[in-house]
């Protein structure tokens, strides 16, 4: 099968093109670093099926970052039949820098000039024939986003792949380095090594890999250096060649792109204007916090805009209104208006309630629909397994689907419009002095979706210490699978009357970010490391969220969630149901009347002691909380599924009414579940990414930090409740300690490199 590789700068639209070509729904991120590994798919519209490889985004082929190494090795070693170099037409000159390097390789190349929709919208003009003539390779104008001309691109690539191509050099024969490069090329070619020109140029640049591979040729370069000196670059050949590339580009291609009088400028100023507010030096960070708050408010608030709490608004819950709000509590006045998330969840509850009741009715042998059928169904083992075990647990897990989808919708919109990229930038600006790079924030923010790809994305960090640290901090960023836990606890808090559900969930997410920052500061205190990755980030222009990108993202999430529920979670529920339904009662094995005699109660009660210091494990229900937390190891959704088996079983009220927590017990439980070991899949990913020693440290960190902080929160909360002044003293002491640690780190990091931001 023929193979075409997609190569280009970060954010030039590679993944968008890849998805359009292969019909895949790979993650399109509006920030660099999302595609670390190469992805493959198939394009079927040519005579012969072609394999498409999406390479990570790069600015050059020097081996400085993991992305560059992956892309470089692929093109050199795997020799694809054609390299499709995607060039962002609105950033032509910068993108062509990479192009000049790709063209040095002996491989067929086609330039896909992307984002031409923006070019024509701005009224700009692009001379594609001129570009093609000067580069010596075919150029095709496309728009990956609008699906424009991509089949034509593939035809051209197919044509190009039929003939071999020799690499060409941008240095002309008058250039002082021309002959040196040529001599190296001949020497390398003589050894039968492929792509001699590319290797020769990199050797003259004295790039790490080439210098190692052709050690014996280095004297040739060094010898030449003695006779050479450039006014600007001295004998730094790498800088000299980089400059030569840019000069070549501006000399040849400055006139290829003709800007309309106002067009592009207007678009730019629009983005700039938005950025003046969104990334404001002082207001940028508070604005992000406000935006986050509204997201959680619209998803989890029972009382939208606090109309009830602040203005005493009550709504008569009858007829059509009752229908709208999910047909619960007819006649009882509604305390304010529920948010969209809660509203959707009520509907889902109504639907799944009847779904389960239907099964109970069948399992009971068609007795009276409702409570009678429910009781009769639970009495048989199969009715209990199907209705109380599997369906009840799955219902608890799936009832949060609407809220989770809404949450992901908001996150996908933030990402697609380009705002998420700004958040990494804002965080970098705010926390660089504490030793935190925006480069590490990108995988962390990805962790809000799922820790598995987020841990993989830490490969972009060039420093091992920083990478290991980022992996450890990943659990602070609540992944999608943990959202049902927060949904359930939010309902418990609201029902118990000590908090607003939306505020609770908001504090978990925001608190996670704050905690990650605090922990990172402490990690700096205890290691000598002061390195902070430089953060080069392109801020893409803002654009309206594209329904296709956002939709694809949500669809992926939903599919993943449903498949997981139907397989791993359902299987876990069966096991837990068995352990909870059978046990030793009245001196023999049986289906137990009292859950406290079940197998799982014995297990839970033994383990309960371990978690006593965390508070939530104390008391009659302590073992249930313990078991629920442990089942979360398999998949985080299991926490809620297991709680449904314990607290929802044959009881009239909803779970929020039977789960008993104090306010600080609730937080302590939440913090443990947030920070402890993630699910098995994420643990396995961390194992693959780290050395054995570092991985064991990571496991220790996850357990220690979740256990320790959960206990701290519990005891501090209890102290506040008993004697607020004592709680205050301890809290102040902790804050003082933290401030001191931060001060220490800032002072030591004074000399850390400062931020470089390339504005697109
Ligand atoms: P990658 O980093 O090269 O994989 O780039 P992505 O495919 O993730 O795209 C980066 C951003 O550019 C996304 O927000 C895309 O929606 C947007 N984008 C990609 N192709 C086009 C295009 O042809 N036109 C426009 N207007 N936007 C595009
Ligand atoms: Mg990508």
From TrEMBL:
Protein name, entry field: Fe(2+) transporter FeoB
Record key words, sorted: Cell inner membrane, Cell membrane, GTP-binding, Ion transport, Iron, Iron transport, Membrane, Nucleotide-binding, Transmembrane, Transmembrane helix, Transport
Cellular component GO terms held in the UniProt record: plasma membrane
Keyword Nucleotide-binding recorded: yes
Protein's membrane topology: Multi-pass membrane protein
Signal peptide: none
PANTHER family per UniProt: FE(2+) TRANSPORTER FEOB (PTHR43185:SF1), FERROUS IRON TRANSPORT PROTEIN B (PTHR43185)
Domain FeoB-type G residue range list: 1-163
Native source species: Anaeroplasma bactoclasticum
NCBIfam families: small_GTP
Domain of life: Bacteria
KW Transmembrane helix (keyword) present: yes
Cellular localization per UniProt: Cell inner membrane
SUPFAM superfamilies: P-loop containing nucleoside triphosphate hydrolases
Regions crossing the membrane: 282-300, 476-498, 504-527, 561-579, 664-686, 698-716, 722-746
InterPro entries: Fe2_transport_prot_B_C, FeoB_Cyto, FeoB_GTPase, G_FEOB_dom, Gate_dom, P-loop_NTPase, Small_GTP-bd
One GO molecular-function entry: ferrous iron transmembrane transporter activity
